[in-house]
């Protein structure tokens, strides 16, 4: 008997052109069924799942100060680089997605 099927390989996928990002802000982007948030912050471009880990809010509707994203529903606060939850009621970190810029395109590793 053979072992279970191998996991699908991860690959860099184009997400959005850098020129289409909201400069210094957060941009909503859908990739398949995933709703993502792309942060153009002081430390560079980072990407997370858009849904707040506390509830159903979309973080793309929140306030981004260049480093932290504040949830629009209960004002939970997250570090947009590490995903760490910084302020209650947010307790679980954001699901970050590895990202890079390649030839003017934001790419994510999925
Ligand atoms: S839904 Fe985001 S802090 Fe509650």
Automatic annotation (TrEMBL):
Organism from which the protein derives: Albidovulum marisflavi
Keywords: 2Fe-2S, Iron, Iron-sulfur, Metal-binding
Pfam families per the UniProt record, alphabetical: Rieske
Rieske domain span: 13-108
Record bears the keyword Metal-binding: yes
Protein's recorded name: Rieske 2Fe-2S domain-containing protein
The keyword Iron-sulfur belongs to this UniProt entry's keyword annotation: yes
């Amino acid at each position: 008997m053979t072992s279970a099927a191998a996991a699908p390989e991860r690959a860099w996928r184009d997400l959005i052109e850098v020129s289409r990002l909201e400069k210094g802000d957060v941009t909503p982007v859908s990739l398949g069924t995933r709703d993502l948030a792309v942060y153009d912050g002081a430390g560079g471009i980072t990407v997370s799942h858009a849904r707040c880990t506390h509830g159903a809010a979309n973080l793309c509707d929140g306030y981004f100060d260049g480093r932290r994203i504040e949830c629009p529903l209960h004002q939970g606060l997250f570090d947009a680089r590490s995903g760490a939850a910084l302020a209650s009621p947010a307790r679980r970190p954001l699901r970050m997605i590895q990202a890079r810029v390649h030839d003017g395109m934001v790419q994510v590793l999925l």
